[in-house]
Design goal:
55 residues, alpha+beta, two-stranded antiparallel sheet, 2 helices, 29% helix
Length: 55
């Protein structure tokens, strides 16, 4: 893992999950979330939809 990845993707907090589709960032989650919310966000990425903050 590259130590500069945090800077490259502007990660300032842990945990941070960045969702990519076709090499482009399509979403980001900072902080802990429920499994159901994570599943919803993953479905959104699979469907090419850009999602907003949920819950």
């Amino acid at each position: 893992m590259c130590l500069r990845s945090g800077d490259r993707y502007s990660v300032r907090n842990i945990p941070t999950m960045i969702f990519f589709k076709d090499g482009k960032e399509v979403g980001r989650q900072v902080g802990a979330i429920a499994k159901s919310v994570l599943e919803e966000k993953l479905r959104a990425v699979q469907n090419y939809r850009k999602f907003s903050k949920v819950r």
